[in-house]
Amino acid sequence: MAKRGSYAKGVAKREEILTRALEVIAREGFRGASVREIADAVGLSQAGLLHYFGSKEQLFVEILRKRDEVDAGRFDPNEVDLTSMREGFLRVIRHNSEVPGVVELFSRLAVEASDTAHPAHEYYLERSALIRQLFTETVRKEQSAGRITDRVDAEVVGRLFQAASDGMQLQWLLDPDVDMAATVDALFQLLAPAPAQAEAASS
């Protein structure tokens, strides 16, 4: 029982750390969110903080996983209706514009994760695959029903949305006046069927 209790406390502490870390990064920005800053926020030493994660890099990976978990509340991954998916996806993008530090963390770590030995490598591969799968399945269903264009393969559409959303984050970090959500939404608009296809689907 003692072991089970200790394990539960450890899990709860990890969750507290990740929740507070997101708050610190959102408030202080990526540069200001040092391990010491995060440790202070949860009443731990730096060594005590890293005890729960193993390394600074792994801590940041888990912070991004926590961000994804929070975003799931804004974007239901089980929703297969394109309109609902569009609304949820854009809602996440708009929220990202309110937390530049988290966006910077994601973008910086993405570059480092191209190294297969980096702790974040698998995270980015898994995340990318899940996003593409979601878009591919939803787009393919909508294409089959004739509600959106089938001029582009569904899997390619999924990759385009992933590239657009991740790429817009980089553009926005360089120029905060860029409207990430509006630009990605334009890509959704391009999925509208060609006139002849729309007429055939409705007849």
Automatic annotation (TrEMBL):
Organism: Microbacterium rhizosphaerae
Name of the featured protein: Helix-turn-helix domain-containing protein
InterPro entries, per the entry: Homeodomain-like_sf (IPR009057), HTH_TetR (IPR001647), Tet_transcr_reg_TetR-rel_C_sf (IPR036271)
Record domain HTH tetR-type: where: 11-71
Alphabetical UniProt keywords: DNA-binding, Transcription, Transcription regulation
DNA-binding region residue numbers: 34-53
Domain of life: Bacteria
Keyword Glycoprotein found: no
